[in-house]
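User: Study the chain.
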Amino acid sequence: MSVLGTTTRRDWQPVATYSLIAVNVIAFAFSAKASGSIDQNMGAYEVQRLALSEPATALGWWWTSVTSGFLHFGPIHLLVNMITLYIFGRDIEQILGRVRFVAIYAVSLLGGSAAVLWFGLENTLTAGASGAIFGLMGAELILTLRMRANPTALLVLIGVNVFASFTIAGISLLGHLGGLAAGAVLTAGIVYAPELLPAGRRTRSRASVVGWSLTAVLAALLVAAIAVRFATFADPVPVLRYRG
């Protein structure tokens, strides 16, 4: 029994995608108001308390592993990420449903944060939805393969974005790769793991249980990795660069 259930109703709307975009826009408005600038919107202390950084990690501000994924460095950063979120989010939400889509987004965000916390802080202030969005790219790739469609264009797009993450200064490569891996692994588990069930027991409800069990396990592992990092992180060097 497949867990894929593409919605074809004419009145269907990607409500979860729109909601995530709205949260990101509201967070940007808050940062701009608090900092008194649209372009330099990350300058206020109350905004920096919500972004990933060495000081925040050393101080145990665990919430930054989530809130950093809704902040952006200026309107261009926000616009590019929100357009990409709409493109990929709409498709995945329609294929897997709103709840699974939000779960993939959330786990991808945590995957990006975990990668940055363990391997990529480097005296930087890190923020942006890119980790979660790279997770959606990974999810889209898995769905494309599952439906036996041609993945060439998507692979090229992912490759270009990963290459840009390597070569362009100010981009959080590890955040992108962590999100990409988390989104791809979780989606693969959702769409392929139910096929391991015996054919006679492969019902939609059992497939759903398998998918949600894997989601819970992966989310728990990422939360544990983040918690351990916050609990064991050494004192920071208080000099920050900016990375999204």
In short: The chain has a mean pLDDT of 91. The longest helix spans residues 204-232. The CA atoms of residues 139 and 185 lie 8 Å apart.
